[in-house]
Automatic annotation (TrEMBL):
PIN domain location: 8-125
Family annotation (InterPro entries): PIN-like_dom_sf, PIN_dom, PIN_Pae0151-like, TypeII_TA_RNase_PINc/VapC
Pfam families in the cross-refs: PIN (PF01850)
Taxonomic source organism: Candidatus Beckwithbacteria bacterium CG1_02_47_37
Keyword Metal-binding (UniProt): no
Keyword annotations: Magnesium
Gene3D superfamilies hit by this protein: 5'-nuclease
Domain of life: Bacteria
Statement: the UniProt record of this protein carries the keyword Magnesium: yes
The name this protein goes by in its record: PIN domain-containing protein
Length: 126
């Protein structure tokens, strides 16, 4: 099958994969597919914040958060700088009624002509 195996992924999907209580079969299948994943650099901050909030909510320990970051690095995710894309991101946010953060993922998927994978139903429909 000549299907493109690359995709843009957002923080919701990465966090679900890293959090034992959120990881399900559908999430596992995505990461087992051996795709090359891309994300805006913004994902790093969303990931770190998500892990911090998981610690605060007693879902994981600080040590587990650190281990999750190590596991994240092993994904080989390509983080893309979106400098000079600000106007396109703003226009997409306006057009699709998205947060600027979500529009950054959508803009990257559009630029790379790749599918956007997300657990956010609105983003997944784009």
């Amino acid at each position: 099958m000549a299907e493109n195996t690359n995709a843009v992924i957002d923080a919701s999907l990465v966090l679900a994969w890293l959090m034992p209580d959120e990881r399900g079969e559908a999430v596992n299948r995505i990461f087992e597919a051996k795709k090359q994943f891309y994300s805006p650099k913004l994902l790093l901050y969303e990931l770190i914040n998500g892990l911090k909030m998981a610690v605060i909510r007693n879902r994981i320990s600080w040590q587990e958060a650190g281990q999750a970051i190590v596991l994240f690095r092993r994904l080989g995710l390509r983080l893309v700088d979106q400098e000079s894309q600000e106007e396109k991101i703003l226009n997409l946010a306006k057009k699709l009624n998205l947060t600027v953060y979500d529009a950054a993922y959508a803009a990257l998927a559009k630029k790379l002509k790749l599918k956007l994978l997300s657990l956010d139903k609105k983003l997944a429909k784009l």
